[in-house]
Amino acid sequence: MGSIPNLPPQQSISKKQINPNMNLQTNKKLRRRLLLALAFILPMVISIQISIYRQEQMIQEKQITLNKEKKRLSELEITGRYFENDIKTLTASDEGILKFARKLYGFSRPDETIFQITE
């Protein structure tokens, strides 16, 4: 068997000196792979962001609608309470009916005289 002589580091031939094109080829392959990966990932990320933005807008619109409907519901509940009170006073006695008529229509009792003042 032959022996391989040990050369000092200055005289040893590095792999870069033997095949410098191989390093360039691997760099080109890596660049291509990265560019292809970006070319596929970037449109997906953009489309996902667009869909999330649209969903967020829809949620905000529905939230506004929900708040309006809650406000309307509370107003209707208050109106319903007034109607319930009016129903109680009207069904309780004839005096309740007379008070209601005086309040809304300006009716008077038999012994009263109502003077209407116009401004």
Topology of helices and strands:
Blueprint: H1 15-18, H2 20-92, H3 94-105
Helix pairs in contact: 2-3
Explain the overall architecture.
- The protein is an all-alpha fold and 119 residues long.
- It has helices at 15-18, 20-92, 94-105.
- The chain has a domain at 19-93.
- It contains three helices and no strands.
- The radius of gyration is 45 Å and the shape is rod-shaped.
H-E order: HHH
Judging from the principal axes of the Cα atoms, what is the shape? rod-shaped
Report the biggest beta sheet as strand number plus sense, adding barrel if it closes: none
Query: Low-confidence parts lasting 5 or more residues at pLDDT below 50?
Result: none
Number of helices: 3
- End-to-end separation in angstroms reads 130 Å
- Radius of gyration from CA coordinates: 45 Å
| Helix content percent band | over 70%
Number of E-type strands: 0
Question: β content, as a range?
Answer: under 5%
Could you give a quick summary of the protein structure above?
By secondary structure, the chain is mainly α. Helix content is 75%, strand content 0%. It has helices at 15-18, 20-92, 94-105.
What keyword list fits this structure?
single chain, 119 residues, mainly alpha, 3 helices, rod-shaped
